[in-house]
């Protein structure tokens, strides 16, 4: 690997580390802001789909699908803005699913990839952290969303940041 192959790990690590520190210092605000931003994003997507459906030629089946999906997203976005706790729980479940997929993927790559043992171990550890985080969020979504999601994400991001920086440093450079 060359010097450029190290940079993605180091950049990922620094960004994760910064995110983790920010989230740990403002956990309550983080949960509320993320929940509301996600609800606004869903609302905007719903409005876009409704607009696209109204512009589609009459009789096009995708126009009807866009309209139905758009209306559902608008309703979901409005509910999410009105009730950020529900939005936070939904986000917690989505984060859990993504963490599980990412974690099992990292573990699989660590177990099957060729390369030095040190970087594979670090990748496996970051995968294990992702699986643990995902499992906690699946089991306790309300607790995670309302009280501890920011702390979990903060600690997780800091740990992933440190592991990614270490992996970038340990990745051997090509001669």
From TrEMBL:
Q: Does the record bear Transmembrane helix in its keywords?
A: yes
Keyword terms, alphabetized: Membrane, Transmembrane, Transmembrane helix
Q: Where exactly are the transmembrane stretches of this chain? A: 9-27, 33-55, 62-82, 88-109, 121-140, 146-166
- Which superkingdom does the taxonomy of this entry point to? Archaea
Q: Which InterPro entries match?
A: Acid_resist_chaperone_HdeD, DUF308_memb
Q: Does the keyword Membrane apply?
A: yes
Q: Which Pfam families match?
A: DUF308
Q: Cite the PANTHER family for this sequence.
A: PROTEIN HDED (PTHR34989:SF1)
Name-wise, this protein is DUF308 domain-containing protein
Q: Which organism is it from?
A: Methanocalculus taiwanensis
């Amino acid at each position: 690997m060359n010097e450029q192959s190290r940079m993605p790990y180091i950049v990922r690590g620094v960004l994760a580390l910064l995110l983790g520190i920010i989230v740990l210092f403002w956990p309550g605000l983080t949960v509320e802001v993320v929940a509301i931003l996600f609800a606004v994003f869903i609302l905007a997507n719903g409005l876009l789909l409704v607009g696209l459906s109204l512009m589609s030629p009459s009789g096009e089946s995708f126009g009807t699908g866009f309209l139905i999906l758009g209306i559902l997203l608008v309703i979901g976005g409005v509910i999410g803005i009105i009730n950020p706790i529900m939005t936070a729980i939904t986000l917690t479940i989505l984060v859990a699913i993504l963490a599980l997929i990412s974690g099992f993927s990292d573990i699989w790559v660590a177990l099957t990839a060729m390369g030095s043992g040190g970087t594979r171990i670090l990748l496996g550890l970051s995968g294990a952290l992702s699986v643990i985080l995902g499992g906690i969020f699946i089991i306790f979504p309300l607790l995670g969303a309302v009280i501890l999601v920011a702390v979990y994400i903060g600690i997780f991001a800091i740990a992933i940041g440190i592991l990614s920086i270490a992996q970038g440093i340990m990745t051997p450079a090509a001669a």
